[in-house]
Amino acid sequence: MTAYVLRRFVYAIFLLFIASLFVFYGLRVAPGDVTDYIRTVTSGQEFGETLREQLGLNEPLPAQYFVFVKNYLSGDPGNSIITGAPITEILKDSGVNTVKLGASAIIIVYLLAIPLGLFAAWRRNSPQDQTIRFLAVLGMGVPNFFLAILLIQLFAVKLGWFPVAGPGGLRHLVLPAVVLALESLAINIRLMRSSVLEEAAKDYMRTLRAKGLRQRRIMWAHALRNSLVPVVAFAGIVIPLILGYTLIVEVIFRFQGIGFQLVESIQNRDYALAQSLALLFTAVVIFSNFLADIGHQLLDPRVRERTVAR
Amino acid sequence: MEDGRTLQEQAGPPQREPPVSGEPLVVESLTTEIRRRRGSFAAVDNVSFSVRGSEILGLVGESGCGKTLTALSIMRLLPEAARITSGRVLLGGRDLRGLREADMRGIRGKDVAMVFQEPMTSLDPSFTIGMQLIETIRAHGAGTKREARDRSIEMLENVGIPRAATRLDDYPYQYSGGMRQRVMLALALLLEPAVLIADEPTTALDVTIQAQILDLILQLRDEHGMSVILITHDLGVVHEIADRVAVMYASEIVETATAGEIFRKPQHPYTQGLLRSLPELARRGTPLPVIEGRVPELGALPASCRFGPRCPNRITRCDDEHPTLERANGDRELRCFNPTEFELRLGH
Predict the structure, then answer these.
(1) Residue B14: predicted pLDDT
(2) Which of A94, A278, B131, B324 has the smallest count of CB within 10 Å of its CB?
(3) For A203, which of B113, B116, B127 is closest by C-beta distance?
(4) Which positions in chain B touch A197 (Cβ < 8 Å)?
(5) Which of B126, B135, B184 sits opposite A301 (nearest CB)?
(6) Each residue of B24-67: pLDDT tens digit?
C-alpha cells in the first residue's frame, strides 16, 4: 500500500510538471499582453516597451519558463503585475474561499447522494424512488448558471434569506454551494442507485437473507459497502468537475475564490497571477484524483491486497 | 450473556422442542407459481415430502424441474415473480407459511439453513469471513461478540479450515472454492439448525473437492444430527450419501424411495431412464442411453402424464389421465400407471 501511494504521488508530481508547461505556454500564446491593459490607463507606446523589458517579457519563452519554475521552487512566485500584491497572499485568500465553497459542495453531494441513492434502490419503483429519480433527472438537466440566477432571484432577492453575492460567512456559502453541488448530486444519486441495484441482484444477497439478517442491515451494511466502490472511483471525476464549476459559480456570485481571480487575471493578462492560479487549480484536481485512487484501494479488499503484494 | 447460559445451551438442540411427528420437516401439497407474461405456472406443483430426523434426503431432477424453487419456498426466499399458492411447510410442527416476515427471519439460519450452489459468489466480497459468521450469530441474539467469535472459530475448525483463528480475518477471495463451500457449511450450521438445505453444494467444485464436501456433509450430519435436503441433478452424489431419494420431473415428485430401493429397483420409467444414462453404468463401447425427447415447457404441460410423451412404458391411460402419487410397496411412493420392474447392477 505504501509503495502504491508513493508511486501515485510521483505520478502526480510528474503530471503537475506537464501541466505547468501547458499553463505557461497557453497564456503566452494568447493574443496581447499585460502592457496592453496597463497602457490603456497610462498610455504611450514607449512606456509599454520599457515595461515589457522590465518584466522580462522580451526574453525567449524557455528562459521565461525557467525563471517561472525557479521562482516557484524557491517558494516566491512574485507579485501580481497589475496590483503588485504578493501572489502567495492572493493564493491563500482565494484558496481558502474556494476550498470552503468546494468542500461544502462535495459534502452536500455525498451526504445526500449516498443515502438517497441507497434508499431509492431499496424502495425501488415506490413513489419515493420515482420522486428521487425525477429530481435527479431535473438536476442533471438544469444548467448551473441558470439555476444560480433562479436561486438568487428567489432566495436572495424575493425572500432575502441569503445574501445575493460575495464571500463571507456560512450564509454566503449556501447558495453557491447548492448550485455547485446540484449536478454532481444528481449524477451520484443515479450512480449509487444503480450500483445498489446491481449489488442487490448478486448471489451473496440471498445468503445474507438466508442467514436471517434484517433487510435494513443487508442494505445499510452489505449493499452500502459494496455499492460505494464505483461511487468512490467516480469521485476522481466528480471532484475536479465541481472545482471546474467554481469558475462559473464564483463569477456569478462574485465570490472571491480561485476561479474568480483566475478569470479576472486572465482577462488582464496578469501572467504571474494567472499562472499561479491555474497551476493551483491543476494541483487540486491532480490531488483529488490521487485521493480518489487511494480511497478506491482502501474500499476493495482484493485491490488492497494486490497492491500490498506488489 | 444476560441469563448466564452458554452459547451452546442457547443455540443447541437441547433447547429445541422435539418435533411432534418425529419428522423435522414436512412439506404438504406445496404449490409455487411463477408469474410470466402469458400467465401463472406452477413451477412447484403439489409437492409433498418429509425429512426424517438425521436423514439425508436427495431431491433429484433435471435443471428447471423445480428443485431449487421448492427449497426457496421452504425458506420463503422466493424471487419477486414467484409465490406460494397452496400447501403447508411444517418445521417442527409449525407452519412456516403462516409466519410473519419478522418471525420467519428468526427461523432462517437458526432452525433451517441453506447452502447454495455457487461458493465463489455466495459470500459478501467486502466483509471478512469472521464478520459474516459473527453477524449471523448476533442477528439471532445468540451470544456476545466474544462468544460469537469463539463459536465461529470452533465452527470453522469443525468444517476443516486450518488455522481457523487467523483465517477468520481473511476475505472470501483469499479462500479457494472448496474452502468457501466449507465456510458456507460452517455458516449454515453455526446455530445448529434442525434442517439443512444444500442446493447443488458440489456442482461448482472439482471432482476431488466434491468428494471432500460430501464427506464433510456426512460427518457434520453425524456430529450435529441435523436433517439434510440435498438438491442435485447428479445421481452419483445422491448415491454417495443420501438415505432417501425424491425424484422430481416437470414440477412434480414422481418417485420417492430409500436410496437403496431407488438404485436397485427404480420403478418410475423416468428414474430408470436417469439411472440408465449414468456413464458409470454404461457398457463400454456402446452409445450412452438417453431419455428421448425434451422436458415439457412450464406453460405447456400435458394434462395427462407429464412424462408420457417420453415414456417407453406408455399405455392408453397415460394419455388420458394425470397419475397421482400413490404409496407403493413399503416406503415407496410412485406416480405411474404402468411401472415395470427393472434390475440394475451397480458397478460398485
Answers:
(1) 42
(2) B324
(3) B116
(4) none
(5) B126
(6) 999 999 999 998 888 888 899 999 999 998 999 999 988 888 89
Give CA angle at A65 (A52, A251), nearest 5°. 75
Closest CA to A245 of A259, A231, A261: A259
Q: Which residue of A has its CA nearest to B186?
A: A211
pLDDT at residue A118, rounded to an integer: 94
B9 pLDDT exceeds 50?
no
A260: enclosing H helix or E strand: helix A258-267
Closest CA to B217 of B194, B197, B203: B197
A301 touches chain B (CB under 8 A): yes
Tell whether B121 lies on the interface with A, counting CB pairs under 8 A: yes
Residue A251 resides in a domain = yes
A269 compared with B194, residue with greater pLDDT? B194
User: Within its chain, how far is the Cα of B194 from the centroid?
Assistant: 13
Interface test with B, best of A124, A203, A211, A220 (most B CBs within 10 A): A211
ipTM (interface pTM): 0.84
Q: Which residues of A touch B75 (CB under 8 A)?
A: 210
H or E segment at B27? strand B25-36
Q: What φ, ψ does residue A273 adopt, rounded to 5°?
A: -70, -45
Contact A222 B127 (CB under 8 A): yes
Instruction: Indicate whether A72 belongs to any domain.
Output: no
Alpha helices (runs of H) in A45-169, residue ranges in sequence order: 45-54, 61-73, 87-122, 127-141, 144-151
**Band of residue A189 on the pLDDT scale cut at 50, 70, 90:** very high
A73 located within any domain: no
- Where along chain B do the CATH 3.40.50.300 domains lie? 7-242
Nearest to B41 by CA among B69, B76, B11: B69
Kindly state the cell numbers that stand for B188.
Answer: 449454515
Q: Is A209 within the bounds of a domain? A: yes
pLDDT for B106-141, tens place per residue?
999 999 999 998 888 999 999 999 999 999 999 998
Is there a contact between B110 and A212 if contact means CB atoms under 8 Å apart? yes
Domain extent at residue A146: 87-309
Helix axes A224-252, A271-299, angle to 10 degrees: 170
Q: How far apart are CA B266 and CA B74, in angstroms?
A: 27
Question: Can you tell me the mean pLDDT for B141-170?
Answer: 90
Three-state SS letters, B174-218: HCCHHHHHHHHHHHHHCCCCCEEEEECCCCCCCHHHHHHHHHHHH
- Grid cell at residue A48: 509599454
Q: Which ranges in chain B belong to alpha helices (H)?
A: 7-11, 67-75, 101-107, 129-139, 145-158, 164-167, 177-189, 207-224, 235-241, 259-264, 269-276, 316-320
Q: What is the rounded radius of gyration, in angstroms, for the C-alpha atoms of chain A?
A: 24
Contact in structure between B135 and B143 (CB atoms under 8 Å): no
Nearest to A210 among B108, B124, B174 (CB): B108
**Which of B104, B108, B124 should be substituted to probe chain A, the one whose Cβ sees the most A Cβ atoms within 10 Å?**
B124
Question: Alpha-carbon distance B337 to A4, whole Å?
Answer: 71
**B77: nearest CB among A203, A206, A222:** A206
Q: Which CATH number is A210's domain given?
A: 1.10.3720.10
Rounded distance, CA B122 to CA A209, Å?
Answer: 11
In this structure, which topology does domain B7-242 adopt according to CATH? Rossmann fold (3.40.50)
Q: How far is B195 from chain A (nearest CA, A)?
A: 13
- Total structural domains within chain A: 1
Report helix, strand or coil for A82.
Answer: coil
What the block records as the C-alpha cell of B152 is 465461529
